Amino acid sequence: MTDPFEVKLYFAYTSPFSYLAMEPARSLERSHRVRVRFIPYGVNIRKTYGNLDSADADRRKVRYLYLDARRIAKERGLVIYPPKKIFSCRNAFYGGLYADHRERFREYSNRVFERFWRAELNVEDRGAIGQVISEIGLDAGAFARYAEIAARADLDECFAEADRDEIFGVPTFVVEGELFWGEDRIDWVIRRLDALGLRR
Q1: CA 3, 200, 102, 99 torsion: positive or negative?
Q2: What is the CATH number of domain 5-195?
Q3: Which pLDDT value is given to residue 44?
Q4: Long-range contacts: 172-176, Cβ < 8 Å, 24+?
Q5: Model confidence at 56, in pLDDT bands (50, 70, 90)?
């Protein structure tokens, strides 16, 4: 039996559009003979949108993007509260990699996305991430050791793969090397998979 066709999805827990892309991405595994591989990718927010902490920063584009995200989220019964600062999600990524190695990525990510966007989880707090790890039935102590010893190398490899794929933002789907940036590109992804004869 051949392995299912791989679709990549580069994501970040601190990206509202990554949150919105997760369930449509998972639905691809039901509609098509594919496996979606979720790959962490860190976006330099200040480089992309400017120094949002400065008084003279042009925040109009960012405000609009959050407005769009909240409109889409409301239609899907999700909650998105714009964060009050720029968060690093390195520790959340470490948790996601740890959970993924143990086939619990979905349970972990569901909790992290939902709580972060409800302003109920500090993704920079490794202890809080460890609590989520415990909730999904994994060993928080083992996660802490992984975060100290092996996680950085694993995450660096994800970033290196993103560089090879020429990723510049999230969420980005990759189908046979072709990039589709944005959760609203899912229809194009579906058409590409249909053209490859992968519809179930």
Answers
A1: positive
A2: 3.40.30.10
A3: 59
A4: 172/9, 172/10, 172/41, 173/7, 173/8, 173/9, 173/21, 173/25, 174/7, 174/8, 174/9, 174/10, 175/7
A5: very low
- The label of the residue with tokens 């892309």 reads 21
DSSP, collapsed to helix, strand or coil, labels residue 158 as: helix
Decide: 38 and 100 in contact? Cβ < 8 Å. Answer: yes
Mean per-residue pLDDT of the chain: 92
The pLDDT-based confidence of 52 (bands split at 50, 70, 90) is low
What is the distance, to the nearest Å, from the Cα of residue 155 to the centroid of all Cα atoms in its chain?
13
pLDDT, average across residues 91-113: 98
Q: What are the extents of the domains in the chain?
A: 5-195
Alpha carbons 103 and 93: distance in angstroms, whole number: 15
Distances (CA, A) of 59 to 48, 55, 189: 12, 10, 31
Strand-pair category, 5-11 with 34-40: parallel
